[in-house]
Amino acid sequence: MPQLILEQALNGLQFGLMLFLLAAGLTLVFGIMDMINLAHGSLYMVGAYLAAAATQAGGSFVLGVGAAMLGTAMLGLLLEMTLLRRLYARDHLSQVLATFALILIANEAVRIVWGAQPVMLNAPDELSGPFEAGGFSYPAYRLLIIAVGALVAGSLYMLVAKTRLGMWVRAGASNREMTEALGVNVRRLFTAVFAVGAALCALAGALLGPLLAVQVGMGESILILAFVVIVIGGIGSIRGALVGSLLVGLVDTLGRAALPALLRGFLSPEAAGSLGPALASILIYLLMAAILFFRPEGLFPARA
Amino acid sequence: MALYVSSPRRQVLALASLAGLVALPWLAQLLEQTFYVSLASRVLIFALAATSLNLVVGFGGMISFGHAAFFGAGAYCVVVLAQNGVFSAWLAWPAAVAMGVLLALLIGAISLRTRGVYFIMITLAFAQMAFYLVVSLKSWGGDDGLSLAQRSTLGWLDLKDDAVFYYVVLALLAFVLFAFDRFAHARFGRVIQGIRENETRMEALGYPVFAYKLVCFALGGGLAGLAGALIANQAGMAGPNLLYWTQSGTLLVMVVLGGVGSLYGGFVGAALLLLAEEVLVGLTPHWQIGLGLVLLVVVLWAPRGVAGLFARKRDDG
């Protein structure tokens, strides 16, 4: 039993950290430019596909991940400078629709280039086995994801919380006009933030690729979770994104593992069997609705 | 956004389209293309769904990204009732409407506490909840959905006949649009449009803003429930894809394509989108790229949709 709980907790941590990689970029885009970008999930998908292609071409997973991050950052840069920039001043409805259109375009473009079938992306052979310590075993690759995720999340948090660049970003998220008046070029800063966000998307896509299928539509399911995360955390707040990611990752994973068993305690096995998975899959949405009910601006609102 | 007023020119256009739509089954029969009657029913049903969303988004100013939940709830309501032996449209369709209203009251009461982006996201979250709930309920068919053994029965009308079903849908849509027009000119419609323009001011004038918005949201949910009941009859089934978030997105696209806050916006948008889809599917399997590009162009250069293109002349002159 402890083995199972620890394993599920680690899975939840791993999922939460990957969500943070997506949510970090999304929350800053949201916070600084007041822009809803549904196409963020498409960058994650493109990143995973690029990683698969580059790994196959170069023969090295690390090289593939690097190439995917670089390529997706370039794509993000291009997208921001040509299209998204025009949408900042527009209302939310226009932003939702324009980026919804981008999703349709990205999905079809990927289908044209790579076909409709899922693409294989294998983890390096050295990491395919389990990691064992003191009678506890856990897949080594998942452990690597946790390590990389924690490292990136930690450095990103330090970058935003402790450096001058991070200070500009936070200032931009809390009051854009004032920051501009103080002489920070928020436009350019934001283009950079967007490119970094795209690279982080690609990292998450590439790392999760070997665990989940690399396929068209993979971006949408995780995108909605990332939105849940940033809404829980408070839009524009990197701390909120971190707390929200870990909360969502753990609640979702542990809920799926534990709820059916818990319900069996006081319901008939049949009822528990059908209600358990149903309840587990809506748990994070319930969490979000409850948090918004009590704190309509999320846990850590960036705008005072 | 301007206050809604009906223009005589638009009335004439609407009556002409109605005449054309009434004649459509005869024409299809004449040309032996009865497939188009079924397609036209589908277009009209989506027009109803998009119109119900336009009520919420265009008139109430609430950008709901979870409208598919009410649409799907109506569909599942009809199918589940049919599985329990209730086929009468007199029972099942009002039940679908009531289902939509109740669900919208529940979701609206919580969601309307938030605003802006948070409102968009919380409505989306509720719709996703409904989606996952339906998918994981095995007795409701899970991923596969449920099929409807036979279409609802409506007195002496034989809804199994595609043409008859088409006329019933057309009559319902025409009635809803007529009522919508009256509603927009009535006191309630004026107030809700006032709230869209300036909530604080309406609050200061003494209107119970929250209650008005909630009623508007629930009305939209009820109409979407009706559309759901019809789509279940048209397709012969209810599937979870009716509740998926892309469905909410598609309905929003229809509203914007046709014109936000324009009476016929939902109808025009649904017709344009579904017909374009029908044509493009025949041309290329990658038609969604074309759809995406068209949508981008509309959002960037014609944000008021087709209604905006028509209205521009009057604004300039």
Order of helices and strands of chain B: HHHHHEHHHHEHHHH
Structural class of chain A, by secondary structure, is mainly alpha
What Rg of chain A is obtained from the alpha carbons, in whole angstroms? Answer: 20 Å
What would the average pLDDT of chain B be, to the nearest integer? 87
Largest interface: A-B, 43 and 44 residues
> Hey, roughly how much beta strand do the residues of chain B contain?
under 5%
Going by helix content, strand content and strand pairing, the class of chain B is mainly alpha
When the domains of chain B are counted, the total is 1
- Residue-averaged pLDDT of chain A, rounded? 87
Distance between the termini of chain B: 18 Å
Number of domains of chain A: 1
Helix content of chain A: over 70%
Order of helices and strands of chain A: HHHHEEHHHHHHH
Strand line-up in the sheet with most strands of chain A? 1-2
Provide the helix percentage of chain B: over 70%
Briefly characterize the structure:
With 304 residues, chain A is mostly helical.
Could you outline the blueprint of secondary structure elements for this entry?
The complex is a heterodimer of chains A (304) and B (317).
Chain A lengths: L1 H32 L6 H19 L2 H22 L9 H23 L15 E4 L2 E4 H23 L1 H11 L1 H6 L4 H23 L9 H16 L4 H27 L4 H26 L10
Antiparallel strand pairs in A: 1-2
Helix pairs in contact in A: 1-5, 1-6, 1-8, 1-9, 1-10, 2-3, 2-4, 2-8, 2-9, 3-8, 5-6, 9-10, 9-11, 10-11
Chain B lengths: L7 H23 L4 H25 L8 H16 L5 H23 L5 H20 L9 E2 L14 H24 L1 H11 L1 H6 L4 H27 L1 E2 L6 H14 L6 H19 L3 H15 L3 H12 L1
Antiparallel strand pairs in B: 1-2
How would you describe what is shown here?
The complex is a heterodimer of chains A (304) and B (317). Chain A has one domain. In chain A, 75% of the residues lie in helices and 3% in strands. Chain A is globular. Chain A has 304 residues and is mostly helical. Chain A contains eleven helices and two strands; from the N terminus they run H-H-H-H-E-E-H-H-H-H-H-H-H. Chain A has a two-stranded antiparallel sheet. The model of chain A has no long low-confidence stretch (mean pLDDT 87). In chain A, helix 2 (40-58) crosses helix 9 (218-233). The N and C termini of chain A lie far apart (45 Å). Chain B is mainly α and 317 residues long. Chain B has one domain. Chain B is built from 13 helices and two strands; from the N terminus they run H-H-H-H-H-E-H-H-H-H-E-H-H-H-H. In chain B, strands 1-2 form a two-stranded antiparallel sheet. In chain B, helix 2 (35-59) packs across helix 10, helix 3 (68-83) packs antiparallel against helix 4 and helix 3 packs parallel to helix 5 (117-136). Chain B starts with 7 loop residues before the first helix and ends with a helix. The A-B interface holds A 30, 34, 36, 83, 86, 90, 92-94, 96-98, 100-105, 107-109, 111-112, 220, 224, 227-228, 231, 235, 274, 277-278, 281-282, 285-286, 288-289, 292-293, 296-298 and B 57, 63, 65, 110, 113-118, 120-122, 124-126, 128-129, 132-133, 135-139, 245-246, 249, 252-253, 256, 260, 286, 288-289, 291-293, 295-296, 298-300, 303.
